[in-house]
Each structure stands twice: as C-alpha cells, then as structure tokens.
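<instruction>
Derive structure tokens from the sequence
<data>
Labelled lines for chain and fold
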Amino acid sequence: MIITTTETIPGSTIKEVLGVVEGDVVMSKHIGSDIAAGFKNLVGGEIKGYTDMLDKSRKEATKRMVEEAKKLGADAIIGMRYGSSAIMASASEILAYGTAVKLK
C-alpha cells in the first residue's frame, strides 16, 4: 500500500477515487506516566512515556486506516494526514485519514 501526504503519486495515474478512509485510536495514560510527567515539568525535557504512547497510537491508527483501504480494494492512500485531540484529562485520540484510490 502506497501512503503519501501528496495529492498525486509521481509516475502513477489515479484510475478511481474510492473515498475517505480513516483509522482511529484512543489511548489513556498510565498513572506512572503522569507521575513521571510531573517530575519532568519541574526540570524540563522530553516526557518519554508520552512520546512512546503517541508513537504507538499513530502506528495503530495508520494500520487501521490501511486495513479500511484494503477492504475497498485500494492500491494507495493519498492526502494522508494525522489529527489529534484530548478526549478527557487522561486520554487522547489519534486519527489517521486520507483518500483511498485505485491506480492504473
């Protein structure tokens, strides 16, 4: 599966637009991550637990988006983007979305 943030794929022609596909995941923070984040707030620096959680969330959201595109018979996803939001104090949502297409 080709995934690109651009609207075209160099050297390829879009035969058919299949529609928007998305993958969504909501992850909650572990209490240990919150405690570590509190300490990092005092001294500064990267909060590794949150970075790892968001990385895992992006990968899972992308995987779910690709699975949806495959169900439609897509060869590629163009215009791919990520979105995020806080669902509640201890959870965030990561959304991966794009346009599924068939190539010639």
Notes: Residues 1 and 43 are 43 Å apart (CA to CA).
